[in-house]
Every structure is written in structure tokens, then in C-alpha cells.
């Protein structure tokens, strides 16, 4: 360990002691290169929501789901550009809670940090459970709990070796998903243009409007709007690239590049894939609970399609669990350094990894998997449904923080970001309005209303615990001055530029 690292660790420990926030360096090692950051960004936008969840959305909205993904994708781009502006102002690992803490106050930073941590713990539980279920496709003799245990332990150990190994795992997990989608698109284009395969007789672009019209759902445009909650769920974790800010090599170049690829990623992997699939297979052939990719492969005449998609969704689930292991440890440490979480989680290993926070989260994931197997009832479904609303809470905090940051920067109180969000703050206002509309639609839809039931209970827990902790340690919850954060931002940018 270098003398600089020792000094950084000492500064971090002091910050945790007095609740003063992060020092110039958080003590992490910048082991994530451009190649890994790009794939983390891509992988965050492609999950089981596309490979499995799209079937239900197609059956509800028909081809108009393409428009839903386009609208949601535009909003996601606005969110990511708002995040990018904040990241270039102050590149820190606990980005969401840090920006909420700075621009909205200690309470919002506290709630955001713990909510995002819980989001990934719950997501990790569901994804490792799903991964164990997918293994049954090949060998039903393996108990699900054994697969879940093996997957959790392997990913946990990978996260403890080095941040570079985490990045490599995400790179290859994302590569599998990208290859599958591109392969499906190329095969579909071949069917449409060259006329090969069993689906050639019925495959046509006219399938996008010839089976009841483009807005072919039961209620037309309303059906399309009601799928927006499913669509937004599919995009959860796209913001994960922000958590990597404290460990990215040359974040000044890699993070903006990753964020600027959001439009073409959504255009190709979501809109492009759906256009091809719905052209090859009429939308009326899809139903909830079945993957549209499996149906498309079956219509084309590739019997191995089900196995291919099962392997892809297995990697998607493991990728999500891997991301959960990574992000939960960082969030717990951020809370610890700011005095808003147990100091126990503030320590790093010699290789710059938050061992204690990651271990705690992994144990909870395993416990959750056990609970799910033992009592797979409505109580667990309520907890799982919380993931959607908690993920959108992080997006709301990003947008509000960016709006307030831009105001201060325009007044000269804070330095301007080198990666300004185009059209802001109006694009951020639009994104906020869109998210609020989706939340209202969730309340209207009976299937997704359960997601909102958990929010008041979690809000009550956060409010009570905040008051208790604030009384015990008032200094940790004092609002810091603009000058304090301006100094931290300057130190963070200088440190990020020094370690390349």
C-alpha cells in the first residue's frame, strides 16, 4: 500500500468519525477500464425485463410497445445525462446518496442510500432465485437451494478478489446478452429479406399494423400507457454506471462515453429487437409468462432457441446479482463514512474493497433466498414489488439534484460541469413528470398497485430511524455549506485526473 493510500484511508476514517463526508479520495482503486465501463453500461440496460417480461407487455399493448420503449428510452437518456453532469462535477462512488445529501439535505441522502441498498438486496434475492430456477431446465435433479448457494458464494468471492474481476464478469455477462440480441436481429432480418426458415410465409413488416393496427391493445393508446411500468422496470439498473465513478479509470472520458451510448443501446437492443421480433411473429402469438425470444426462435425453426434464451436469462440474472453485490457494499460504506450507517461498514480491505458491507449484503441475499423457498407467498411478493418503486426513487433524486446543482452552478456558487445535460433543466422536469405519471399508472393498475403499498411503510421506517440517529449523532446529519461541497468536488476531480 502506498503512502497516499494510507493517508486516504486515514482521512476516510476521520470522515466517518465526525460525519463530515468523503475526503479527496474514497480509498477505492480505479480498476475499471473503458471496456468494462462500456459493458457495465450496456448490461445495466439489458435484463430479464426484456428477455422475459416483454411477453406480457406485448400481449397487452401489441406493436405500440415499441413506442412505449422509445418514450421511456428518451426519459432514461435524460436521467443518465443528468447523472453524467453530476458525475463530472463530483465523481464519487456513493453518487446517488451523495448528490441527494448535498442538494436536498441529509435526510434525503440517508433515505436514498438505504433505499438503493435495499433495492439491490431485494433484486439480488429475486435474481439468484431465478438463476437457480433456470438451472432446472438442464438438470432438475439439482436442488434449487444448492444452485442459489453456489451462485451467491461464487459471485461474493469474485467481488472480494478485486474490482477488476467484478468488471470482467460484467463484461462477459453483458457480452452474452448483446450477442443473443444481435444474433436474433440478424436472423430476423434474414427471414424478412431472404425468406428462409419456417416463418418466411408469415413474416412481414406489415405485422406491425395488420393485426388490429399499431395500437392494437384492448384499449388502444391506454393499453400502451399501462405498459410503461413494465418498460421502466426493464430499465432499472441503467444508473449503475454512476456507482462505478469512484473506481473508474479516467472517469472524465469513460463515464461520458458510456452515458452517450444510451440512445443507440436502447434503439438497437430494445426498439430494434422488438421491431424485428414483431415483424417475424404477429403480436397475437405472444402471451404473458413466455419469452418473445423463445417464440421467435421457435417460429423460425430453431429448436435450440429455448435453450439459448434460457442460458441468456441465466447470465442476465447472475449479472444483476453480481451488480447487487458490488453496489450494496459501496452504498453501505458511503452511509458509514457520512455517519448515517454503522461505522463497521466504513473499512476497506488492503485491495480497496468494502468487505464488510458486501458480506452483510450477501448474507441477507442468502437468507432471502431461503425465505423465498420456505414461504413463497404474498408477503415475499410484496417485498419484491418494492424494487420498482425504490429504483425510480433513485432516478427522482438524480433529477432533482441535477436541477438544484445547475441553479447553483449558473449562479457561480459551484463550478460548471464539463458534461452539461442538453436542454436541462427542462429535460429533467420532463423526466420527473414522466416518472410521476408512471407511478400514478401503477396505482391505477391492479397488478402493479402492490408496488406502492410498500413505499409508505418503508418511508415510516426511514423517518423514525432518521430521527433516532439524528438525536444520537447530530453532527452526522447537519447540512454542510456549499463551500464544503465545492472543496470536496475539486478534490474528487483532482484525484480522478491524477489516477489514470
From TrEMBL:
Biological process, per Gene Ontology: amino acid transport; transmembrane transport
Protein name: L-asparagine transporter-like permease
Major localization class: membrane
PANTHER family to which the protein is assigned, alphabetical: GABA PERMEASE, L-ASPARAGINE PERMEASE
Gene name of this polypeptide: proY
Family to which this protein belongs: Belongs to the amino acid-polyamine-organocation (APC) superfamily. Amino acid transporter (AAT) (TC 2.A.3.1) family.
Organism for this UniProt entry: Streptomyces eurocidicus (Streptoverticillium eurocidicus)
Location in the cell: Cell membrane
Transmembrane segments: 39-58, 64-83, 103-125, 145-166, 178-200, 220-245, 266-285, 297-321, 353-373, 379-405, 426-444, 450-469
Gene3D superfamilies: Amino acid/polyamine transporter I (1.20.1740.10)
Amino acid at each position: 500500500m502506498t503512502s497516499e493510500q494510507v493517508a486516504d484511508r486515514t482521512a476516510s476514517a476521520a470522515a466517518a468519525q465526525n460525519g463530515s463526508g468523503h475526503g479527496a479520495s474514497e480509498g477505492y482503486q480505479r480498476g475499471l477500464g473503458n471496456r468494462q465501463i462500456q459493458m457495465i453500461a450496456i448490461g445495466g440496460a439489458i435484463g430479464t425485463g426484456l428477455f422475459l417480461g416483454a411477453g406480457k407487455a406485448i400481449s397487452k399493448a401489441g406493436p405500440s410497445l415499441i413506442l412505449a420503449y422509445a418514450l421511456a428510452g428518451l426519459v432514461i437518456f435524460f436521467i443518465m445525462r443528468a447523472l453524467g453532469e453530476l458525475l463530472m462535477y463530483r465523481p464519487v462512488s456513493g453518487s446517488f446518496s451523495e448528490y441527494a445529501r448535498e442538494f436536498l439535505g441529509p435526510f434525503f441522502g440517508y433515505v436514498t442510500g438505504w433505499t438503493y441498498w435495499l433495492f439491490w438486496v431485494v433484486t439480488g434475492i429475486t435474481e439468484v432465485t431465478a438463476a437457480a430456477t433456470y438451472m432446472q431446465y438442464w438438470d432438475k435433479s439439482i436442488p434449487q437451494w444448492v444452485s442459489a448457494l453456489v451462485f451467491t458464494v461464487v459471485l461474493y468471492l469474485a467481488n472480494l478478489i478485486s474490482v477488476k474481476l467484478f468488471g470482467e464478469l460484467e463484461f462477459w455477462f453483458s457480452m452474452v446478452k448483446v450477442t443473443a440480441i444481435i444474433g436474433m436481429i440478424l436472423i430476423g432480418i434474414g427471414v424478412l429479406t431472404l425468406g428462409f426458415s419456417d416463418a418466411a410465409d408469415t413474416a412481414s413488416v406489415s405485422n406491425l399494423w395488420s393485426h388490429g393496427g399499431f395500437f392494437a391493445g384492448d384499449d388502444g393508446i391506454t393499453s400502451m400507457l399501462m405498459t410503461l411500468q413494465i418498460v421502466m422496470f426493464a430499465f432499472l439498473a441503467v444508473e449503475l454506471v454512476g456507482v462505478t465513478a469512484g473506481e473508474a479509470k479516467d472517469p472524465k472520458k469513460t463515464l461520458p462515453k458510456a452515458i452517450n451510448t444510451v440512445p443507440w443501446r436502447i434503439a438497437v437492443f430494445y426498439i430494434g429487437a422488438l421491431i424485428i421480433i414483431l415483424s417475424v411473429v404477429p403480436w397475437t402469438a405472444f402471451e404473458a409468462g413466455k419469452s418473445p425470444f423463445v417464440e421467435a426462435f421457435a417460429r423460425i425453426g430453431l429448436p435450440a432457441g429455448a435453450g439459448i434464451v434460457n442460458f441468456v436469462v441465466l447470465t442476465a440474472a447472475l449479472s444483476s446479482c453480481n451488480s447487487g453485490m458490488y453496489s450494496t457494499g459501496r452504498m453501505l460504506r458511503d452511509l458509514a463514512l457520512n455517519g448515517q450507517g454503522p461505522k463497521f461498514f466504513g473499512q476497506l480491505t488492503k485491495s480497496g474493497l468494502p468487505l464488510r458491507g458486501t458480506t452483510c449484503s450477501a448474507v441477507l441475499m442468502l437468507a432471502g433466498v431461503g425465505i423465498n423457498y420456505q414461504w413463497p407467498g404474498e408477503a415475499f411478493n410484496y417485498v419484491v414489488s418494492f424494487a420498482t418503486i425504490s429504483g425510480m426513487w433513485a432516478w427522482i433524486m438524480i433529477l432533482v439534484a441535477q436541477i438544484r446543482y445547475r441553479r447553483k452552478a449558473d449562479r457561480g456558487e459551484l463550478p460548471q460541469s464539463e458534461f452539461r445535460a442538453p436542454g436541462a433543466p427542462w429535460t429533467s422536469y420532463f423526466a420527473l413528470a414522466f416518472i410521476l405519471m408512471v407511478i400514478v399508472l401503477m396505482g391505477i393498475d391492479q397488478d402493479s398497485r402492490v408496488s406502492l403499498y410498500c413505499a409508505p411503510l418503508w418511508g415510516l421506517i426511514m423517518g423514525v430511524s432518521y430521527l433516532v440517529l439524528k438525536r444520537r449523532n447530530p453532527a452526522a446529519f447537519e447540512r454542510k455549506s456549499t463551500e464544503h461541497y465545492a472543496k470536496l468536488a475539486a478534490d474528487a476531480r483532482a484525484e480522478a485526473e491524477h489516477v489514470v
